[in-house]
Amino acid sequence: MTPPPESYPVVVAGIRRELPLFEVAPGVRIAVLNILGDTEFVQACARALAEKLTSRPYDVLVTAEAKSIPLIYALSVETGKPYVVLRKHYKPYMGVALSAETLSITTGKPQVLYLDEKDHEMIKGKQIALLDDVISTGSTQMGMKSVIEKAGAKVTVEAAIFTEGDPQQWAHIVALGHLPVFTT
To answer: What is the C-alpha separation between 175 and 2, in angstroms, rounded?
Structure first.
């Protein structure tokens, strides 16, 4: 029998979770947050983020596909604000989509984010709140910002459940917690 994987404990919005540690490069591990299917945690985080965002100006919530989709939906319900998901794969029904390339720490490969043509008009000229589950390198944030700017909108606030790495780098992010990067 193999021992359970090493984990990192977190408590967010009164909910405790054990995040498994995952090696992303030789000698570098991160605590992996996977909120898919964790309704209790997602709802608690959405309520806590909604409270932290009450004094911030924004019209529309925007995130990148995929793990943060339940969070943005729950936050939309909490705040009454509409949301847009930037897709990672283009589909013909998306029409004339705007795009930007990004590199996620969890995939290690370049990805493209697409704004569906139908969502372009929804965000054009609007103030945008960017949302992610974890902000680690900032690459996804930069990709989302690039698409938002191409669409003629303005990012006014950025939020996440966790930031990761150097806490000073993420001082401007509205977050519920911070995760260390584990090195050996």
So the answer is: 35
Count of CB atoms situated within 10 Å of the CB of 127: 15
Q: Evaluate the CA torsion angle 145, 148, 153, 156 in order and state its sign.
A: negative
Question: Which tokens in the block code for residue 173?
Answer: 């992010």
Q: Which tens digit of pLDDT belongs to each residue from 136-184?
A: 888 888 989 999 999 999 999 999 999 998 888 999 999 999 999 998 8
For the stretch 64-87, pLDDT in tens is: 988 999 999 999 999 999 999 998
Q: What is the DSSP string of 1-47?
A: -PPPPPEEEEEETTEEEEEEEEEEETTEEEEPP--TT-HHHHHHHHH
Q: Which domains does the chain have, with CATH numbers?
A: 42-178 (3.40.50.2020)
Neighbours of 63 (CB within 10 A): 25
Strand-pair category, 182-183 with 98-103: unpaired
CA torsion sign for 105, 108, 112, 116 is: negative
Mean pLDDT for the chain overall: 90
The structure tokens listed for 174 are 């509205």
- For the entire predicted model, the pTM comes to 0.89
